[in-house]
Specification:
The protein has 7 helices and 11 strands. Helix 3 packs across helix 5. It has helices spanning 41-50, 67-73, 92-104, 123-132, 177-186, 194-199, 220-230; strands at 12-18, 35-36, 39-40, 55-62, 86-87, 110-115, 138-144, 149-153, 156-161, 167-176, 206-209. The chain is 28% helix and 25% strand. The chain is an alpha/beta fold.
């Protein structure tokens, strides 16, 4: 695990994946555009990244049907580092590839891929991932698994699973731009995240400590937790 400081002599781009439909959430509006205390998750991500001097460009990837929602989320944003949105594909892998293609002309050294539904990413996490890329081709934020794990069948616990060495992946996941681009070009099929894609090429991937506040809004309960976090009633507070 790395705690390296960020290196600002490298051009870092942020790629925010926001093309998902949020079917597990069950709302008509994609979850990344639902208000959390009046500000949607995607806008909260954008505000955090654009507040960091280490960030040279921010590239969003959205669904073509969400152009109006995206325009509403961007009201008041005038930062030229925010590039025109790219459109996503049928899968997350295709959406990230479309974002990488849109970024290629800006020649970033590093790219950090982030899920728009993780509304409370902290500056510390972003800087730690950037810092880790000084010595690694790839690195991502994660938390060690502390709960007991069981493999179940039909809702019945069957076999315990050792948690030693297990980590819960978060985003951002950072990469040397050319490493991620080449890995995507060589990859076929779907993947859980971009770490899986670069690992298929044999790339070593470092880990920096994430934050419990950097949770992904996936269900209505997560949205309630997000509201509670903003109001200060959530016991898992982000470190700045």
């Amino acid at each position: 695990m790395s705690d390296s400081p960020a290196h600002t002599d490298r051009k870092t781009a942020i790629l925010i994946v926001a093309a998902g439909r949020g079917r597990r959430f069950g709302a008509d509006t994609p979850k990344q555009y639902l208000p959390v205390a009046g500000i949607c998750a995607l806008r909260r991500c954008l505000d955090t990244f654009l507040d960091l001097s280490e960030v040279a460009h921010v590239q969003t990837v959205i669904h073509p049907d969400d152009r109006m929602l995206y325009a509403q989320a961007l009201r008041g944003v005038t930062d030229s580092r925010l590039l025109p949105a790219a459109f996503g594909g049928e899968t997350r892998v295709q959406s990230v590839m479309n974002g990488l293609q849109a970024l290629a002309g800006h020649t970033p050294d590093y790219v950090l891929v982030h899920d728009a539904a993780r509304a409370f990413v902290t500056p510390r996490i972003v800087r730690d991932v950037i810092g880790a890329l000084a010595t690694s081709d790839a690195a991502f934020a994660a938390l060690p698994v502390v709960d007991a794990l069981w493999r179940a069948e039909g809702g019945v616990a069957k076999t315990p699973v050792a948690r030693d060495g297990l980590w819960r992946a978060q985003t951002p996941q950072g990469f040397h731009f050319e490493v991620l681009q080449q890995a995507h070009l060589a990859y076929y099929g779907d993947a859980a995240d971009d770490v899986e894609i670069v690992r298929a090429m044999g790339t070593e991937v470092g880990i920096v400590r994430g934050d419990t506040a950097n949770f992904k809004i996936t269900t209505p309960d997560d949205l309630l937790r997000a509201e509670q976090f903003v109001s200060g009633r959530d016991t898992d507070r982000a470190d700045r």
